Structures are given as C-alpha cells and as structure tokens.
Amino acid sequence: MAWDFETDAGFQQELDWIDDFVREEIEPLDFIIKSPYDIKDPIRAAIIPPLQKVVQERKLWACHLGPDLGGPGYGQVKLALMNEILGRARCASTIFGTQAPDTGNSEILAHFGTDEQKERFLGPLLRNEIVSCYSMTEPQGGADPAVFRTSAVLDGDEWVINGEKWFSSNARYASFLIVMAVTDPENDLVRSQSMFLVPIETPGIEFVRNVGLGYETEQEDHGSHAYLRYNDVRVPAENLLGQRGGGFAVSQVRLGGGRIHHAMRTSGRVQRIFDMMCERALSRNTKGEVLGRKQMVQEMIADSWIEMEMFRLLVLRTAWKIDKLQDYRLVRKDISAVKAAMPSVYRNVASRALQIHGSLGASWEMPFAKEVIESFHMGLADGPTEVHKVQVARRVLDEYVPCDDLFPSTHLPKRRAAAQAKYADVLESHLANL
Ligand SMILES: Cc1cc2nc3c(=O)[nH]c(=O)nc-3n(C[C@H](O)[C@H](O)[C@H](O)COP(=O)(O)OP(=O)(O)OC[C@H]3O[C@@H](n4cnc5c(N)ncnc54)[C@H](O)[C@@H]3O)c2cc1C
C-alpha cells in the first residue's frame, strides 16, 4: 500500500488552532482541576463546559464519531494528528469530547445499543453530561478472560450480577458501568460472557476501595481505579448490551479504537517530555559546557528522537490503514504492534528526561516519576504488552509457510544450485569460450 504523508492546508489550520487553544486555555487546568471526570466538582463545572462549547462551535467536538452521532467523522489519521496535541494536557480530551474510556464505551453503545439504550446512556455520554466506566478486569487476573468469575444469571426479566471487579477506572465518577459477566459457562470461552449496562445507583454495587497509582497518595484518596463488589445487582433484561454470549465481540470493537487513541495521545505526551529534556540539555552547565554537548547526553536525545519518530510513523500508518480498510479486524496486527511499542518509547523518554534533570528530575517538582508510572499504565491497560507481542507474532507467522526440507528454502547452497541451473546455458558457453 502506498502512503501519502501530507496534511491538507485547511485541516492544518484547525491543528494550529487546537495547538494554541490547548497551550493557552487547557494546559493550566492540569493545576486547577482534580479530575476531568468528576462532573460534580464545582470548579470543573465552572471551567470545562464553556471550553467544550468553544470546541463544539468550532466543529471539533467528538471527532472520533460520524455526523449521525454529533461528530465530524474525521477518520483516524486526522484524529491521530489532533490527539497528539490533546495528549499534552490531562483535561484536553474531555474538552474535545474524546476522553477514554467514554470514547470506547460510546463506540460500543453506538454499535450494539438498542434505541432505548442509546437514548438513555449514549446521548448524555456524548454530550459529556455523564461519564462511564468499563468494568472487566477481576482481582484474580485481567490478562486472561478464562479466569473471570463474575456471573450474571437470568431471573425472570432481570439479570442478577455477582462477583468482583478490579481497576474499574472512574467508577467513582461514573453514572453507569459496562460490566462483563459470565452468562453461559457451558459455551466455549468466546461465547460464554456478556456485557451489561449497570446504572451506578443500582443496589448491591459495593466500593471495596478506590485504588491509586504509585504517584498518588493513599491519604488524599486520589485513587480512581475501583475495586468493586457486585452483590446480587439486578438489572432489567433489556440492559444486556449486544448478544447474550457476545461479550468478547463487544470488547473487541471497543478495544480496537481505544488502543490506537491511547497511542495517539501518548505520542503527544512523549513529545512534551522530550521538549523538557532538550530545554534542560541546553540550559544546564557542568564541567564547563552545557549538558547537550556531552556525548552520552546527545545519545539520550538522539535515541529518544529516533524512537519517538518511529513510533509516531507506526501510529499514523496504522490510523491510515484503519481509514482505508474500515475494519479493525484487518488491522489487528498493526494495532497490537502500536500497543506493544507504546510503553517502552514512553518509559525510555521519561526515564532519560528524569536522568538529565538530575535530582530535580527525581523530585515531585517535575512530572517524570509520574510519567514513568504512566508508561506502565500504557503497558497494562487494554492488555499487557506481552499479550500484544504474541498477537503480532502469531499474525506475522500466519503469513509464512513451513519448509518441508531439512535445510531452509533459502539455504545458500540450494539457491546457488538453482541460480546455476537457471543460467546453465550462459555459464556453459562462457566456460566453453575460456
Ligand atoms: C491505570 C490502569 C487503568 C485500568 N483501567 C481498567 C478499566 O477501566 N477497566 C478494566 O476492566 N481494567 C482496567 N485496567 C486493568 C488492565 O486491563 C489489566 O491490568 C490488564 O488486563 C492486566 O491484568 P492484570 O493487571 O490482572 O495482570 P495479570 O493478568 O496478573 O498479568 C500480570 C503480568 O503477567 C504477564 N503476562 C500476562 N499474560 C501474559 C502472557 N499471555 N504472556 C506473557 N506474559 C503475560 C504480563 O507481564 C502482565 O503484566 C487498568 C489497568 C491500569 C494499570
């Protein structure tokens, strides 16, 4: 497949506008707003909706969605170019209507939801009047759905959900949860689980605790990844999302988009860290010269730039393939490759930036320790890196066939013999003329 690298001039103007808007209006909010997901926070309520209105008037709201759902339907390449700018600031995605996990959740509601489900859950979610949570991972394991135990049993016209879920991000702020539960244990694994829409006020939802990441403090209750217990949680039969036993199919639609969107934002976030690294390398003197003149520092800068640029191109090429093929299943290898590449680029650049800033870099006065932990977030959420590497390898190997001979098909003596047979006439006449 060929690939065109150009961005059209009209869209570039929009990107320039987004860049200014994020720098001027949104980046400062990282110091003001505790969580862009906390709809009830009065400071958030005063600041974020007016900025969202500006974005909507500019027709840049929810650009991952088509016009039928209130977005411009830009496709993944344009979204990637936008998302890498939005990745610079924590509140930016919310202000542009593209925040995870609501983007993925709205995609599956749009894809699988009934008219009633769309009206009740999707409409308010798309307008960011509410936020949502995706509740799939369980305390005994997230990377292997075969170990999931949360069950849903049909009782008359209600489903009764029982079990525990772990790291259900933003459950504390969410109006509803999308819960994966075992409904048909007798089926094979991929047909054994189903998705449910569970309003947060449903009796029986117990917050065991809110868990935070390593840079957050337990005392301040910053954690937003809930350990949840579902105790006889009853939802009406019509709260099943998609087909009974179709939970895996629903999750694949959700995760395809979500993973590439994370990568796009990560690209921007890493660029920001890199900018800090370069500024410091030019500003700090030691042993008579700036750090940027030391070869080992230069190596860190060069390695970072090369890794970032390779990653960015992989993300953009994957986005472009999604737009062309319009089917996530055909781009799974590429999406898994992006997902597997993302944490190491992020972690490498953040760690080098920390190192170049010395003690200041290790302190809480710079963001690098947090960024290093966040790089692990990217290597775990939506499936650990190892699982994605396995996917890449499997799909790559599907494109090859085994050689049934003892020696490889490319064994040099074999190739030499084949080449000599092909050009036997020329070789023979050349030898005859000697
Ligand atoms: C910040 C953050 C937010 C998250 N938000 C959500 C959310 O909103 N909703 C939700 O449902 N989940 C969420 N998760 C959970 C996430 O999906 C899981 O962490 C992930 O699926 C891994 O599951 P686990 O943590 O139980 O690790 P485990 O399944 O215990 O795996 C541990 C480690 O074992 C290794 N491993 C696992 N499988 C393989 C394999 N096949 N081959 C080789 N090595 C392997 C990997 O190194 C892996 O990290 C979030 C996680 C994080 C960190």
Radius of gyration: 26 Å
Q: Enumerate the distinct ligands.
A: flavin-adenine dinucleotide
Average residue-wise pLDDT:
94
Shape: globular
Would you tell me the structural class of the helices and strands? alpha+beta
In total, how many beta strands? 10
- CATH class (first level) name of the largest domain: Mainly Alpha
Q: In percent terms, what proportion of residues is strand?
A: 5-15%
Largest sheet: 4 strands, mixed
Low-confidence stretches: none
Q: How many domains is the backbone divided into? A: 3
Sheet with the most strands: spatial strand order: 1-4-5-8
CATH superfamily of the largest domain: Butyryl-CoA Dehydrogenase, subunit A, domain 3
Helix/strand order, N-terminal first = HHHHHHEEEEEEEEHEEHHHHHHH
Q: Mind telling me which CATH architecture of the largest domain this is?
A: Up-down Bundle
Brief summary:
This protein is an alpha+beta fold. The chain contains 14 helices and 10 strands. A 4-stranded mixed beta sheet has the order 1-4-5-8, covered by helices on one side. Strands 2-3-7-6 form a 4-stranded antiparallel beta sheet, with no helix packed on it. Strands 9-10 form a two-stranded antiparallel ribbon.
Would you mind describing this structure in some detail?
The protein has 434 residues and is of the alpha+beta class. The protein folds into 3 domains: 9-99, no CATH class; 132-241, Butyryl-CoA Dehydrogenase, subunit A, domain 2 (Beta Barrel), CATH 2.40.110.10; 249-398, Butyryl-CoA Dehydrogenase, subunit A, domain 3 (Up-down Bundle). 50% of the residues lie in helices and 14% in strands. The chain contains 14 helices and 10 strands. It has helices at residues 9-26, 42-57, 76-86, 92-95, 102-112, 115-126, 247-283, 295-325, 332-356, 358-362, 368-380, 385-398, 412-422, 424-432, and strands at 132-135, 151-155, 158-169, 176-182, 193-199, 205-211, 225-236, 240-241, 285-286, 289-290. Strands 1-4-5-8 form a 4-stranded mixed beta sheet, with helices on one face. A 4-stranded antiparallel beta sheet has the order 2-3-7-6, with no helix packed on it. Strands 9-10 form a two-stranded antiparallel sheet. A hairpin with a 2-residue loop joins strand 2 and strand 3. Helix 7 packs parallel to helix 9 (332-356). The mean pLDDT is 94. The structure holds flavin-adenine dinucleotide. Flavin-adenine dinucleotide is lined by residues 101, 134-137, 141-144, 167-169, 225, 377, 380-381, 383-384, 386-387, 390.
